[in-house]
Write a structure and sequence with these properties.
elongated, eight-stranded mixed beta sheet, 18 helices, single chain, five-stranded antiparallel beta sheet
């Protein structure tokens, strides 16, 4: 028994080693074709070929660093690899299968291909009537390919492999697992047909196509690779917009395309590497209310508007009102919970009514054929004067010159209930008035979408915006425990009230500066005179409080204070404003040196000369614009990156009403400032709109993505 065991174990080991020795050389038998910049390996995982067999072989290309080979549509230049097979009777090979490619920019061109490594799967079938005449059978192919970097080199060669030929399927098939795994990895990347029930449609535009692809789930981004050459501008950016059940791409058409194609055929690659073959047919898209619907898109726009309204509370132009609301909460912290909530909702109503009034004006003027955008009222010198006077008079009251109660600030603790609620309402109105010069993050696209759609959609978006602006105050009103954390009312509150006047007066200074740029220096004298009259009216109210005659005199003086700047604007504003606007524009350009005033003609001229263009849509009354310009755009490092990239810099000043700038913003889907846009040198490529809040990294990364750019990205 022991002897039998001793012989059995070594015998088994010897048999196993012999089997491994026999299989290993065969498994490693994959011929290699070595060229100057490419190494090609013919991968045939099975070690035996027999009737009825089907498997996938592969051609593995390994390129030197920086070199690439091409996809089935090479893009703007190049050609894909090709193979001509020489196979025994009974063995057939399918066409090379191409995994999704990479976008490979080469100067102003864009190639589609592969770097480093790629495997092209090849389906192989052995027919049932395969009758080998020898123990070994040979599979051979003649390969040709183009490999490129700065230069392109055509290469070719022959490659072959021998495999054991069997007349029937073996009991145990021998295969190379490493080769099979490598082929399977690339085979899994091959594009698949769209899932059942999904579809793709495209709509032709003046500059290209809007492509909607329904995949069954929301896709944040995608890339489209056309199968047909000379249909799209390959190097143009492909703007992606997620849709509830898919994705929408905006594609620029090729300059040589004479008429829209009957089908838009190609490969669409989604995040994660999933790819689909599509043949999009002409039809409606989500933008036109087509296959993907618009309800989900509108819900997203409403969400952006709400979030933008909340962030608007943090913008510098709303800063003084935050002081006012804080003071109101301090005064109301001892009220009943129900009263606090009512104050919160009445404050919200004041914001909403103000927003509704503005959108009603916008919609009415739009119906009358005028082009207006968000913040248009700050282009009106009379509006600027009235807001500045209101804040100046409020500042005088807060500073202690006279006492009108705190209803104007939304507190209302010392007034009747009706007056207190009125104060909350008008605090909401004031919040909206001073908020409109700013376009917070997420607001730009939402407002542009609203003004470009129906009246109902416009009111819905602006309602969401107003609710977002009011949300923090309402939240505090519903959680009075947070208000109890505030100190109890006392003598310190008078000091706090007077301190609140400081940011109010600071805002007045800013409004006076904006007024001077819009209306001119001569009209500015009228506004300053009105401040004097307001101070006199405040002195009457403070010197003789509660008396009818002084109050009547104060009202008459207030009426005169309102009339003076209106008269000054109408008498001196128009002609002087043009001169002042020109001088201010020159001052802005001189400060940065490289900026030029925006005009569509200059934009077209720069792009025709092969230069990309950066356009800064700005206004003097937009504090966010001023912050971005001084901290980011005028930064020495950013200016140096501008110079290195060779980009043209244009500044579109929207301080005064300018229909050309308004129309340009509308074409970009925007209706307010700040807006920052990069127009690629390729006129068929769509413009790239940057976020409203800039950082150096955002600007430099956008410059680095431009063709011919020498700008390195900044983390």
């Amino acid at each position: 028994m022991r002897l039998r065991f001793a012989f059995t174990i070594p015998g088994a080991l010897l048999l196993a080693v012999a089997a491994m020795a026999q299989a290993a050389p065969q498994a490693a038998s994959h011929p290699v074709l070595t060229a100057k910049h490419v190494r090609v390996t013919l991968l045939v995982p099975p070690q035996q070929l027999y009737p009825g067999q089907s498997f996938t072989a592969g051609l593995e290309f390994q390129m030197e660093s920086g070199w690439h080979v091409y996809w089935i549509n090479a893009g703007d230049s190049g050609e894909p690899p090709a193979v001509q097979w020489t196979l025994p009777a009974g063995i057939t090979a399918g066409s090379l299968e191409f995994p999704p490619p990479q976008r490979l920019p080469l100067g102003p061109l864009m190639d589609f291909g592969y770097q480093n490594q790629v495997v092209f799967p090849v389906p192989i079938r052995v027919t049932a009537d395969f009758h080998p005449s020898a123990m070994q059978t040979r599979m051979a192919g003649h390969l040709s390919w183009l490999v490129c970097r700065e230069v392109c080199i055509p290469e070719k060669g022959d490659i072959s492999v021998s495999r054991t030929a069997l007349r029937a399927a073996p009991a145990v098939a021998v295969t190379d697992p490493a080769a099979q795994t490598l082929i399977a990895r690339y085979e899994s990347k091959l594009p698949k047909p769209l899932p059942m029930g999904d579809a793709a449609h495209f709509r032709s535009t003046a500059s290209g196509f809007v492509l909607d692809v329904r995949t069954g789930s929301r896709e944040p981004t995608a890339q489209f690779f056309p199968l047909d050459p000379s249909v799209i501008a390959n190097a143009a950016p492909q703007a992606a917009k997620p849709l509830p059940k898919g994705v929408q791409l905006t594609l620029a058409k090729d300059g040589s395309l004479q008429s829209p194609p009957q089908r838009l055929k190609g490969l669409i690659e989604l995040p994660g590497g999933t790819a689909y073959l599509i043949q999009a047919t002409p039809g409606s898209t989500a933008q036109a209310g087509g296959i993907l619907g618009s309800s989900g898109h509108l819900a997203g726009i409403l969400g952006f508007a709400f979030l933008g309204g909340m962030i608007l509370n943090l913008m510098p132009c709303v800063f003084p009102v935050l002081f006012i609301k804080a003071l109101a909460l301090v005064q109301s912290s001892q009220e009943e919970r129900r009263h606090l909530r009512i104050h919160g909702w009445i404050y919200t109503l004041g914001i909403l009514v103000s927003f509704w009034a503005v959108v009603a004006v916008l919609v009415s003027l739009r119906a009358a054929g005028r082009q207006l955008g968000w913040g248009f009222q700050f282009q009106s010198p009379i509006f600027l004067a009235l807001v500045a006077m209101l804040l100046f008079f409020l500042g005088l009251a807060l500073a202690g010159q006279f006492e009108v109660g705190l209803s104007l600030t939304g507190a209302g603790s010392s007034l009747a209930e009706k007056q207190g609620f009125a104060g909350s309402f008008f605090t909401g109105v004031l919040a909206m008035l001073v908020a409109t010069p700013c376009t917070a993050p997420f607001m730009g696209a939402a407002i542009g979408y609203a003004l470009a759609h129906s009246v109902a959609v416009s009111f819905a978006v602006f309602t969401a915006l107003g609710l977002g602006l009011a949300a923090p105050y309402v939240l505090l009103a519903y959680f009075p425990a947070w208000a109890r954390l505030l100190p109890r009312p006392g003598r310190w509150m008078e000091t706090l009230k007077q301190a609140v006047s400081i940011p109010i007066f600071a805002t007045v200074i800013w409004l006076v500066w904006v007024f001077a740029q819009v209306a001119g220096v001569s009209a500015l004298g009228g506004l300053l005179a009105s401040f004097l009259l307001l101070a006199i009216a405040g002195w009457f109210l403070g010197r003789w409080p509660g008396r009818r005659a002084p109050a009547t005199a104060a009202v008459l003086i207030l009426a005169a204070a309102i009339a003076v700047p209106v008269w000054a604007v109408r008498s001196f504003g128009p002609s002087d404003a043009t001169q002042v606007d020109a001088s201010i524009q020159q001052g802005k350009l001189a400060r940065s040196g490289s900026w030029q005033p925006f005009s569509p003609a200059l934009l077209d001229q720069d792009r025709e000369q092969g230069r990309a263009v950066f356009v800064d849509f700005t206004a003097s009354w937009c504090l966010s614009c001023q912050v971005n310009e001084r901290l980011i755009l005028d930064n020495a490092e950013v200016q140096e990156r501008f110079r290195q990239s060779g980009i043209a810099l244009l500044r579109a000043d929207w301080t005064n009403q300018n229909p050309v700038i308004t129309q340009t913003l509308a074409a970009l889907g925007r209706s307010g400032v700040p807006t920052y846009v990069i127009y690629p040198a390729d006129r068929s490529a769509p413009p790239q709109v940057l976020p409203e809040v800039l950082t150096r990294g955002i600007v430099i990364a956008a410059l680095g993505a431009l063709p011919h750019s020498t700008v390195a990205s900044v983390k």
